[in-house]
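Journal club prep, notes for RB
We'll compare a predicted complex against what the paper describes. Inputs for the LYGD5NNO case:
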Amino acid sequence: MTSKNKINEDLANERRKCNFNIEEVTYILDGGKEKTLQRKKIEDVALNGGASVDDIPEEYLSARERYENAIRKSCIYTNIVKNEVLEITGIENYGSPVLRRTGDAFFKDISPFMLHLGMFVPSIIGQCTAEQQATWLPRALDMKIIGAYAQTELGHGTFIRGLETTATYDPETEEFVLHSPTITSYKWWAGGLGRTANHCTVVAQLYTQGKCHGTHLFIVQIRDLETHMPLPGVKVGEIGPRMGFNTADNGFLGFNNYRIPRMNMMMKNAQVLKDGTYVKAARHGKLTYGTMVFVRVTLVGEASFNLAKAVTIAVRYSAVRRQSELRPGSIEPQILDYPTQQHKLFICIATAHAFQLTASWLWNTFTAVQAEMKKGNVDTLPELHALSSCLKALSTSDATAYIEQCRFACGGHGYMLSSNLPFLYAFVVATRTYEGDYTVLLLQTARFLVKAWEQAESGKVVTPTVAYLNRHFTTNGKMIWDNSPEGIIRVFQSVAAGKISLCVRSIRNRITSGMDHEDAWLMTTVQLVNAAEAHCRSVILHTYWNEIVRLTKHSSDNVKTVLNQLVMLYLTYWALERTGDLLRYSTISENDIDLLQRQYEELLVKIRPNAVGLVDAFDIRDEILQSTLGSYDGRVYERLMEEVQKNPLNKEPVDPSFHKYLKPLMKSKI
Ligand SMILES: CC/C=C\C/C=C\C/C=C\C/C=C\CC/C=C/C(=O)SCCNC(=O)CCNC(=O)[C@H](O)C(C)(C)COP(=O)(O)OP(=O)(O)OC[C@H]1O[C@@H](n2cnc3c(N)ncnc32)[C@H](O)[C@@H]1OP(=O)(O)O
Ligand SMILES: Cc1cc2nc3c(=O)[nH]c(=O)nc-3n(C[C@H](O)[C@H](O)[C@H](O)COP(=O)(O)OP(=O)(O)OC[C@H]3O[C@@H](n4cnc5c(N)ncnc54)[C@H](O)[C@@H]3O)c2cc1C
């Protein structure tokens, strides 16, 4: 064995200690053995040519070089996908999470094609008629046209109804005239728009026959397909450096009375006829927001995957890193042996599991709602919107905090870009804002919760995710504390019910004392966000526990044990985080809290020997992790030194700036 492929001895020891079948856990997380085998096959095809095709790491490049390099790699990857991967998986898997995952081997930051696959293509699928799909989809999937999703404007992101771009129908020519009437109406932020896209989905206020019908979606060509020049009437460019997303060429876009054919309005849910007659969406007023719902659903899985990457890096590093001494003269312990380090990291492993299983469950819910909507039934859409909103908000917010915790857990080396942790953080922190800001989305869930509360109050049976509200009206007093998983979940549901109840009371009291409904709601929004967070927490706890019970029914004993330890750690962790709520809404005592704390610390000890095995079970290839600290072999220090060789600053022993500036300064007299 050469030193290049030798496994670090501490990491090798950890793997010897692991007492469960790692593959079995991988299968559970992937959704079954077949899915794991399929993923591995795709990864082999996509990555075995050597994915990391950068001679100089992208962080050393200028903005121009970085963008060009990102385009170069996007094209390499797209060709691999088109020519090799889709042969195995079929075209319907374009844009699947596996391809998204494999793509990470090519980019530390982000591909300029991400929004094409992540939002432009889904908007064609979700918002176009079959005829329109036949026109656009094959060209988009084959990358003959490259798109972006241009909704947000300089002046408005959250409040979609406030968007200012107009699309006015002209029946004479059967065209829409797109126009940006103000500076604040300029599209701003759309990924891939600045330099890459030649088409985009544009969200604009639709005017026909002198009436505004609110925001609708349009497919708009913005650049010439041969020359890539912006078309006359289109002003487009890149918005400038930002925190992360620096290879995504986020762009701005304005229109000067720019004409597009009538059939470029995405007409699945509402139409404008040739004569300008507007035909309203028959089923639900918010179906044009469908692409956002789809992306919110996928973002829960994104949060899980990125957290899994971060904790894989941090746990492996913590097994390799030794620091301090427990007793004078004793061997320095692996930092993973410190309970405080375990406290930082094991919750991250458990959270990645919780989010992965919740993401799969949410995806199933999403596809079930889609199937119902195809039959014309939109009754389940409000619950899906409430669920996808709060799960997107919480998963991205928790993942952000825990990825940062993983970085802290790696000490100084966690700040190195080559650890990949800063990139992961910058990528994930944006997910908390884009596709609906954290607070705004929780307030959407709160609207649903208050309505569900009112239904339960009037004796109606409410939908499953809020069924605990029906129970709230049939039980008296505080929920009895019970330290079983089901007991903890019930208490969390009581906390949510209690908080929603307080919100309803506050709103009613405020209205009674003279406020109108809008002000009463506004004054209660701090509590409403809190209640929606509590509801979402209970949904995650419940889903995680239920899914583990279901998925480990036929598992080997040791797998059952370790996955149970993790889910118990998760439940106990959150119970301890929320002791204030538990004291308020349940009969938990000081003694019960002491017992919870002890239980938590014992779980850390039990999980410790399997920690490396657990992160190995995420099965994330080194090419995808792209981390000096987190590779499978644990050659942390060697990789850090190897990376230093790639630093262009080290190419010459003396920097030219020495002769230009430093030396004159040193020679100058005071
Ligand atoms: C290879 C694979 C590639 C990729 C995959 C991997 C990763 C992920 C993919 C891509 C992501 C990558 C990068 C993304 C980059 C970012 C993109 C963007 O950010 S795009 C822009 C997103 N913008 C937003 O999310 C804006 C947020 N704002 C809103 O959603 C709305 O304005 C808001 C809901 C806040 C308010 O809307 P409004 O019309 O004012 O409604 P109101 O509050 O009055 O509510 C009325 C009524 O409607 C209900 N409702 C609202 N929204 C929905 C909905 N979406 N569905 C159903 N119902 C909805 C609302 O609850 C209310 O109902 P009630 O009256 O209470 O009954
Ligand atoms: C990296 C990145 C990529 C993006 N990519 C795209 C893209 O491809 N396409 C696209 O169209 N957009 C994109 N966006 C835009 C993104 O969707 C918006 O920035 C996001 O929806 C937030 O909207 P905003 O910027 O208007 O924030 P604001 O709404 O201005 O939020 C500012 C603050 O006001 C608060 N706030 C706003 N409204 C309310 C309310 N009603 N109640 C309480 N508090 C409120 C928020 O909580 C927040 O604290 C991207 C953004 C980022 C950061």
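Talking point for the session: Residues 95, 99-100, 114-115, 117-119, 149, 151-152, 157-161, 191, 286, 289, 292-293, 295, 298-299, 302, 381-382, 385, 434-436, 440, 444, 447 surround LYGD5NNO (ligand 1) (CB under 6 Å).
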